[in-house]
Design the sequence.
């Protein structure tokens, strides 16, 4: 990690003046003028006032900033909507923060190529609404949609609720414009679906958490807007039943299956107790609850087909109880139960949240074992599991008392050891940031980490871009 020259030397004063000249007074904040939302991310694990907050208005300004900082060996921490969960976007001591909050233009919607071109600071919800008004769908969807930005979504390869059908953010990006650490602009902003011209350079910037370059614009992929939507909320007896229900739905619904979300009994109880805005639709004595969604383009037949497939599942003994949502308000209510699982995190103080992935066949065992292992150390622990089971992704909420945050390294060790033994991933969709970097080797081999470090060194030889994140 390079030493920062800020905040007091003469060189630092000169650097500040030069940076201010690049972005103008509208793009420059210092000291008390920096809003507290620029101090920390959603996990809130770490909080730090950036020495300066730069808010460039365009790619050329980003390029000029990085060129200067590269020469001065000044570390820079990029910021999007600050909704991350791995403590990456909160600055470290001495870092300049670079926010994309003034780069919010939707440049173009192109119906012929089914793409949208956007600046990095556009909020996800704006993109969803813009696509919708053009009768298209941008399928990426996550709880933070109102504040997260597309630049953050892409640089962390965000997942969310509809990965089962449309893939991760990586699968939704056609072209990227990014700025390297030394200020070089890499213009990969094309709309070509097929482009086999050697290395796919955009992939270097997708999911690399701002450590290899800063994404300034992107061309993203739109899909046809589905014209039917049906949701069922189902109770399931055991995890074997959940896995078999998933296979049944995948086989029978094919590409219409757009979500398969599962809530463990422990989380269902917590929702009932801690999220009063949500009323649970069925008894609490089932082991698992699955939210299953079908989206298609034949409103007349899609609902019928969905009901038929659900009935078959009930006859096969895979479903114990079910509630159907076929009007928008009822569908929203059922989704609110799933979204409430994430709200428990803020409803109970001193909660820690985990994001891991596993083979679906190992998840039942994992759920039981992780609870046993945690209770060995903390018999009174509050534990909740839920996740995007269609994608092999589980979220775990853990509370072991007022000291949960202080003890989180110990909790990490319990959970990540089990993940390592099952050859899962310590991060399914949240990234590594600072919080998970000690455990990177649990999910990546020595040679993989060596190659990652070689790439970092080649692209950012002074180590100024988001230093100390990932490794
Ligand atoms: Zn998630």
Sequence:
């Amino acid at each position: 990690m390079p030493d920062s020259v800020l905040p007091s030397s003469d060189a630092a004063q000169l650097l500040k003046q030069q940076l201010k000249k690049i972005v103008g007074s509208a793009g420059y904040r210092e000291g008390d003028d920096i809003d507290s939302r620029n101090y920390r991310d959603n996990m809130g694990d770490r909080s730090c006032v950036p020495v300066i907050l730069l808010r460039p208005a365009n790619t050329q300004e980003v390029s000029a900033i990085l060129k200067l900082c590269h020469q001065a060996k000044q570390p820079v921490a990029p910021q999007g909507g600050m909704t991350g969960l791995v403590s990456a976007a909160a600055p470290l001591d001495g870092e300049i923060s670079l926010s994309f909050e003034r780069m919010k233009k939707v440049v173009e919607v192109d119906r012929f190529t089914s793409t949208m071109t956007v600046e990095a600071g556009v909020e996800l919800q704006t993109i969803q609404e813009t696509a919708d008004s053009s009768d298209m769908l941008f399928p990426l969807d996550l709880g933070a949609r109102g504040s997260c930005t597309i630049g953050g979504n892409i640089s962390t390869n965000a997942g969310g609720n509809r990965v089962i059908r449309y893939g991760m953010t990586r699968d939704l990006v056609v072209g990227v414009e990014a700025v390297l650490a030394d200020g070089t602009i890499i213009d990969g902003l094309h709309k070509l679906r097929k482009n086999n011209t050697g290395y796919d350079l955009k992939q270097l910037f997708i999911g690399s958490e701002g450590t290899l370059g800063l994404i300034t614009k992107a061309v993203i992929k739109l899909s046809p807007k589905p014209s039917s939507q049906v949701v069922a909320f189902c109770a399931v007896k055991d995890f074997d039943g959940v896995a078999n229900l998933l296979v049944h739905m995948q086989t029978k619904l094919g590409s219409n299956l757009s979500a398969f979300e599962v809530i463990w009994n422990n989380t269902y109880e917590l929702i009932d107790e801690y999220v009063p805005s949500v009323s649970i639709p069925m008894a609490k004595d089932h082991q698992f609850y699955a939210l299953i969604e079908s989206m298609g383009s034949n409103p007349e037949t899609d609902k019928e087909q969905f009901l038929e497939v659900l009935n078959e599942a009930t006859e096969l003994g895979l479903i114990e109880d079910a509630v159907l949502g076929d009007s928008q308000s009822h569908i929203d209510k059922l989704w609110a139960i799933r979204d409430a699982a994430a709200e428990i995190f803020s409803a109970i103080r001193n909660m820690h949240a985990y994001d891991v992935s596993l083979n679906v066949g190992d998840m039942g065992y994992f759920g039981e074992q992780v609870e046993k292992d945690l209770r060995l150390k903390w018999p009174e622990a509050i534990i909740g599991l839920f996740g995007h089971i269609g994608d092999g992704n589980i979220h775990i909420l853990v509370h072991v008392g007022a000291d949960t945050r202080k003890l989180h390294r110990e909790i990490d060790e319990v959970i990540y050891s089990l993940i390592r033994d099952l050859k899962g991933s310590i991060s399914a969709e949240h990234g590594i940031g600072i919080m998970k970097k000690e455990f990177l080797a649990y999910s990546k081999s020595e040679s993989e980490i060596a190659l990652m470090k070689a790439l970092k060194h080649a692209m950012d030889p002074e180590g100024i871009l988001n230093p100390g994140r990932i490794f």
Observations:
- The mean pLDDT is 95.
- The chain is about 35% helix and 20% strand.
- The pocket of zinc ion is lined by residues 159, 388, 395, 429 (CB under 6 Å).
- The radius of gyration is 23 Å.
